[in-house]
Amino acid sequence: MARKKPIPRSQRKTIQRATQLKRDDTVQDVSVSLMDMDSTIMYYFENVIKPTVIENGETIKVPIMYSSPERWFAVQKTGFMRDKKRQLILPAIAFRRTGMEKDTTIAVDKMDPEDPKLHYTFEKKYTQKNRYDNFSVQQGIIPQREYYNVAIPDYMILSYDFIIWTSYIEQMNKLIERINWSAGAYWGEPNRMRFRTNIESYTDATEVADKERVVRTEFSVTLNGYLIPEAFNELAGPHTGQTYLTPGQLIVNNETVATIVAAEPSEGIQQVMTTGGAASAQRTETEYPLTMNAGSGITLSADGVEFTGGSPVTQTISMNVDLVDPTFNSLTVTGNAVIQGDLTAQSYNTELVNSTVLYDSGSTKFGDDITDTHQLTGSLNVTGSFLLNGSAIAAGVTTFDEYTRKQFVKKNTTLIGNSTASFSAVTASAPSGMTSTSEEDFLFFLNGQYMEHDALTIQQANGAFYLKVNTTSIGYVLENDDEIIAWGKFNA
C-alpha cells in the first residue's frame, strides 16, 4: 500500500517550543453541540472502524463524506456519486443527519434555561485553595474541596442515513461486517464525549450504471446524544458550568440556624465548634464475648478471659520456643518459603526437575526444551571451546564478540537515479558458523521515517554500499534532497 512520504529536513518548518508555553487555570463553560455529534460519527468511522477494501491485491481506504443538501439530493435522484469528471466514485461512504427528537424516557426540567437548577456535581481533589501540607495540619486548618456543577443536558435521539457503494459484493460484505460489529457501542473520541449508537437493518441493492456494476447498501444509525447550547454561556453567566469551594471550618451553636446560613467560604472560617450539653463517654458491650485460649507452646497472661467491651483486658502472649536458635523435628510449608540467610542441609530430595540437571562427572545441562531461556548477569569466561548451533567460534580477525558489537550509523553520499542510494561504507562479514550479513542486519530511515525491509535490497561493490529501493512496493521514489540514514553492521 502506498504511504505518505515524509518531508525532507530542508523543507520542514522550525518550531519555537518556547513560544508554545501556556497556562490557563480558568474553568471553561461546558457545551455540547450538534456539530460535536456529527464529528463523533466521522471520527469513529475514520479512526476506529477504518473501512478499507481490497482491489487488485491492494488495500484501499474507503473515503467517508458528510453530504451537503445538494449532494444528497443528487444521490437520491441518480443513486450514485460522481466526481467533477462525471466518473463514478467507488468505493465511497456518504452520510447525512436526517432527523432528531427528544428522548422522552429521560425527563429533564431545567426550570429556567438562563439559570438551570439541575446539575451534575464533580469534585477536584487538589486546588490552589487546598494546599493541605504539614504546616496546615499543625495550624489546625481543615482542607477545602473544590466542586464543579455542570448543568444536566437535553437528551436527544439523532438519526443518520448512510449509503455505501462498492464494486463487488465481497467488498461490501467486509465493510458491513466491520460496521455492524461496532453497532451498540459508544462512539466518540478518547477522553472526550461518547454517544451510544445503534443500527437496526441494512438494505442491499446491485445496480448497473454506464456499463459499470455497482453494489449499494443503505442503513440508518440512531445516536443517543445530549445538547448543552453554547449560546447561554454568552449571557451574564456562567450558566452551564459553575465552581465553588467548601468552607474551611464552621462554627455551630445550639439552636442557631442563622449562623450556619450566613457562613460563606469567603469568610475564611477555620474552626468547627459545638457548644451546649455536657458530653459523656459512651460504651458499647458485645452480645457475644471474645475469648482467647492458649495453644501448644503458647502462654497467655489472661488465658480464657472473656472480653465484652465493658472493661479492658490486657493479654501478654509468650512462646515456649527459643527464637534465636529454634530446633524443629520437622517443618512443612504449604505455601512459599523465603530464606534471607544461608540454607544448610545434609541432603536434598526433589520430586521433579524441570530445567536443570547436574551429572556426577561434573558436566552441567541447563534446560530440557528448545524454548527454555537462560539469563546470566555479569561476565562469562569460557576456558574451553565455545559452540554456536554446533559450530565452533574461534578467536581471529573478526570474532563472534566483535561482530555482535558492530553497530554503526552512515548517511548516504549520493543518489543514483530515483531508486538507489550510495554509502561510503563496507559491510561487516559474519564469522564462520553464523548467517551471512543481509539487509535484515540494517535499519534505514528516509527523512526520519522507517523504511520497511520488504521493499529494500543491499549490494556491496568494493568500498561502496548500495541500497536499492523497490519504488513500486514502497509507494514513492527518491529525490535529490532526501536524506537516508543507515544503522547496522558496517565494518567501521
Keywords:
492 residues; STM4215-like; 30% strand; Thrombin, subunit H; 29 strands; 4-stranded antiparallel beta sheet; 6-stranded mixed beta sheet; 7 helices
Concise overview:
With 492 residues, the protein is an alpha+beta fold.
Characterise the protein shown here:
With 492 residues, this protein is an alpha+beta fold. Among the domains are: 34-103 and 155-227, Myoviridae tail sheath stabiliser (STM4215-like); 400-488, Thrombin, subunit H, CATH 2.40.10. Helices cover 12% and strands 30% of the residues. The protein contains 7 helices and 29 strands. It has helices at 34-49, 69-78, 134-138, 169-181, 257-262, 400-405, 471-474, and strands spanning 52-55, 58-61, 64-66, 92-102, 119-124, 146-151, 154-166, 186-188, 194-209, 212-227, 241-245, 251-252, 273-274, 290-291, 298-300, 306-307, 317-319, 356-358, 364-366, 387-388, 391-392, 408-411, 414-416, 420-423, 442-446, 449-450, 456-461, 464-469, 484-488. The strands form 10 sheets. The protein has a 6-stranded mixed beta sheet. The protein has a 4-stranded antiparallel beta sheet with strand order 22-29-25-26, with no helix packed on it. The chain has a 4-stranded antiparallel beta sheet with strand order 23-24-28-27, with no helix packed on it. Helix 5 (257-262) links the parallel strand 12 (251-252) and strand 13 (273-274). The longest helix is centred in the N-terminal third of the chain and has 16 residues, at 34-49. Residues 256-272 have low confidence and may be disordered.
List the helices and strands and how they pair.
Elements: H1 34-49, E1 52-55, E2 58-61, E3 64-66, H2 69-78, E4 92-102, E5 119-124, H3 134-138, E6 146-151, E7 154-166, H4 169-181, E8 186-188, E9 194-209, E10 212-227, E11 241-245, E12 251-252, H5 257-262, E13 273-274, E14 290-291, E15 298-300, E16 306-307, E17 317-319, E18 356-358, E19 364-366, E20 387-388, E21 391-392, H6 400-405, E22 408-411, E23 414-416, E24 420-423, E25 442-446, E26 449-450, E27 456-461, E28 464-469, H7 471-474, E29 484-488
Parallel strand pairs: 3-4, 12-13
Antiparallel strand pairs: 1-2, 4-7, 5-6, 6-11, 7-10, 8-9, 9-10, 14-16, 15-17, 18-19, 20-21, 22-29, 23-24, 24-28, 25-26, 25-29, 27-28
